[in-house]
Automatic annotation (TrEMBL):
PROSITE patterns: FE_B12_PBP, PROKAR_LIPOPROTEIN. This is Iron complex transport system substrate-binding protein. Residues 1-22 form the signal peptide. Belongs to the bacterial solute-binding protein 8 family. It comes from the Bacteria. Keywords: Signal. CDD domains: TroA_a. Residues 51-330 form the Fe/B12 periplasmic-binding domain. InterPro entries: ABC_Transporter_SBP (IPR050902), ABC_transptr_periplasmic_BD (IPR002491). It comes from Actinokineospora alba. The keyword Lipid metabolism does not apply.
Length: 330
């Protein structure tokens, strides 16, 4: 796969006669090409991308955590995530890099003159709206797929490895692609230490059953075993009641929630207005007649984490530590 050559990136060299000619950018850069494995496919890079467009808050924060803000042409995040940006450890980078759109699409990607789009299936890429790695390839733009979103061969189900390993894989892959592998390895080591700090559970610990409530009125949207909340719950000392589902983010039924009798409900805070507020979600769950017998409802045992901490991203390890403190002290 050839990297798109951008006119703005053409460098001029001066000959002995004083004439200027364009440098040969078709040849691989020093230290390149590099090939990484992304969603079970080998992807080759002849040089480090310099005009990246990242979609969604967690994906964008992966770039920022690697120190790659200067490699970005922009990001796309809807304004419902403004509160997530305001609370981000990389708030300064969000302010520095332009937000080119709320919803990723071909037009803003082309307008940003992107040479790489970092997104994922249902994290921006979608056949229905015609934005896919193949459609970008036809325009000469490379793609990197978020590993949490990789399809596993069963329809459109997603997830090919444990969620934390997906995060570490993306950090290492991108570290290789952008020539910052040492930084990536240091981040992975630091995150592994954070996760390990939450593993000292009390003696005779009984794992509480946890239901991740993302959204949904008629049917709840939740996390199977391949999305971030699976390991946030498990590493913190809980048991995801839908951890047997071989998918990432997926829809279930209220009947199945009742049958699995969660003792804790972990709420995904999108931060996007009164109708989807934390309080609105709690009140909906407390007033749902079918849930009246559920232990978490009877005991009003809720915990809230922001969207950016639950989707794959560099806030995942800290979320494990936070949720572990809640489970072991409340």
């Amino acid at each position: 796969m050839k990297t798109r050559v951008l006119a703005v990136a053409v460098m001029l060299t001066t000959t002995a006669c004083g004439a200027q000619i364009a440098a040969d950018t078709s040849a691989p850069a020093q230290g390149y090409p590099v090939t990484i494995r992304n969603c079970d496919a080998d992807v080759k890079f002849d040089r480090a991308p310099s005009r990246v467009v990242a979609n969604d808050i967690g994906i964008t924060e992966i770039m920022f955590a690697l120190g790659l803000a200067d490699r970005m042409a922009g990001y796309t995040v809807d304004h419902g995530q403004d509160r997530g940006i305001a609370s981000s450890p990389w708030k300064a980078d969000f302010a520095k890099v332009p937000r080119i759109a709320e919803d990723i699409a071909l037009e803003p990607i082309q307008g940003a003159n992107a040479d790489l789009v970092f997104a994922g299936w249902n994290y921006g890429f979608n056949e229905t709206k015609g934005l896919t790695p193949d459609s970008l390839k036809a325009l000469g733009v490379q793609s990197y797929l978020l590993t949490e979103s990789c399809r596993n061969g069963v329809g459109k189900q997603r997830g090919i490895m444990d969620p934390l390993e997906a995060l570490y894989t993306d950090l290492r892959n991108l570290g290789t692609v952008f020539g910052v592998r040492q930084r990536a390895d240091e981040l992975v080591a630091d995150y592994q230490k954070q996760v390990a700090s939450a593993q000292n559970l009390p003696a005779n610990w009984k794992r509480p059953k946890v239901f991740l409530y993302d959204a949904g009125i008629d049917q709840p949207f939740t996390s199977g075993r391949n999305a971030g909340p699976q390991e946030i719950i498990a590493k913190a000392g809980g048991d995801n009641i839908f951890g047997d589902l071989d998918d990432s983010w997926t829809t279930v039924s209220w009947e199945s929630v009742v049958q699995r009798a969660p003792e804790v409900i972990l709420i995904n805070d999108y931060g996007n207005g009164p109708a989807d507020s934390i309080e609105a979600k709690k009140q909906f769950l407390l007033s749902h007649p079918a849930l009246a017998s559920v232990p978490a409802i009877q005991n009003k045992r809720f915990y809230v984490l922001p969207y950016a901490a639950l989707v794959e991203g560099p806030r995942n390890p800290a979320a494990i530590v936070e949720f572990n403190k809640f489970l072991t002290t409340s």
